[in-house]
Amino acid sequence: MLKTSVSDIIPTYDSRADLHKHVADAFEKQFGVPPETVASAPGRVNLLGEHTDYNGGFVLPMTLAMEVAVALGGGTESGAIETFSDIQEQGHRRLIGEAASGHWTDYVLGSLQLAYKGPAEQSGCRVAVGSTLPIGRGISSSAALEVAMIRAATALTGAPMEPAEIAKLARRVENDFVGMPCGIMDQFAAAAGSRGKAVFLDTRTLEFETVPLFDGFDFVVVSSGVKHRLTEGSYAERVGECNRACAALGVEELRDCSMADLDRIGALEEPLDRRARHVVTENQRVLNAARAMKDGDWARFGELMVQSHASQRDDYRVSVPEIDDLVAGAMQEGATGARLTGGGFGGSIVALVRSDITETWCRKMVEQFPASEILAVS
Length: 378
Prior knowledge:
By secondary structure, the protein is α+β, with helices and mostly antiparallel strands. It folds into two domains: 14-44 and 66-212, Ribosomal Protein S5, domain 2 (2-Layer Sandwich), CATH 3.30.230.10; 217-377, GHMP kinase, C-terminal domain (Alpha-Beta Plaits, 2-Layer Sandwich), CATH 3.30.70. The protein is built from 13 helices and eleven strands. The strands form two sheets. Strands 1, 2, 3, 4, 5, 6 and 7 form a seven-stranded mixed β-sheet that branches. The protein has a four-stranded antiparallel β-sheet with strand order 9-10-8-11. A hairpin with a 6-residue loop joins strand 9 (337-341) and strand 10 (348-354). The two termini are 25 Å apart.
C-alpha cells in the first residue's frame, strides 16, 4: 500500500515511560497482579564495523529510540516460567531447566537461567514483553530482550550489574544457550549506549567512548523487507571461516592483523582470503570513521560506509540482491553514504542523509522500493 503522509513514512515512537506503563499493564491484565519490576533496552543500528566483533575488532553502533521492555514478577509454580508477549498476544510456558527449543522465549529463558535461576527454581516467575522494536530487521531485537531481562532480573535479586557485565552475560545467552556464535557488539550497545551518540567500542578490551553524531544529518534505517534468521547456518559458517583464516595466519584473532598483512592474507585459499580481508579492512574503516565523526567530516564518513558495503557484498558475501538494490537506490536519491547493517542475509540498511532532504528522501525510497520500510530516523 502506498504511503501518503509523512507520519506513514517516518516513524514515531512512544516514550520509554509509555512503553514501561504499557508492558506493566499487559502483565497485570494477563496475570492478575502488577509486576515487581519493569526494565527495557534499546535496539541498535551499526554505523560501521560489521562482523568484526567476534574477531576482536572495532565497531561503531548507535542505539535507537525503539526498545524492548519486560515486566517481571514472581510465579505460582516452582521452576515454571510463564511468558506473555503483546506482539504475539499469547502466553507460553517453559521450565527453568529446559534447553533451547528455537522458540523466541529462548532469549527470556536463557537470560533467567543466568541471572535468576535460584528464585525461578523456588517459586517460578512471570514475564510480559512489549516492544516498539521490530523483529528480524537487523536492528538487534534479541540483544535488547536479553539486556532488558537481565536488568529486570538483577533488579529483583538486588545485585545490579555494570553495563559491561550485563553485555557479557547477554552474549553468553546467545553463544551458550541459543547457539548463535555472535560477538558482543549488540549486547554492549543495548547495555551501554545512549541516544544521540555513537559508541566507538574495542570489542577485545571493551574500552569505549561515545561520539556525537553529525550536525545537519540523519542516520536513516530502512528495512529491505527480507527477514533474516542468523542461526540458520550462514553466520556460523563465516565465524568458522574466520577461525580457519586465523589458524592459517598464525594469529589468535583477525584483530591481530593489520593493513600491512594484506599481501599475506591475499595468499590464503579461497574464501579465507576474502573473509580475512573484509575483517582487516573493516577494522581500519571503523578507526577512520570514528576520527571522521569526531572531526565532523561527514563526506569521509559517507565514503567509508559505501566502501564497507562493497566489502560485505564482495569479500564477506553477506548481502543479498534486495539489499544491494536498496543501497544503490539510497545513493541515487541523494544519501551521503549507505550500507548493509546487521548480520546480513537480509535485514536493513543504514544511510547518512542531509536533514534538509530526509523527508523527501524517505518518501522516494518507499515509493521506489514498495517492500521497504523506514524503521528509524536518528
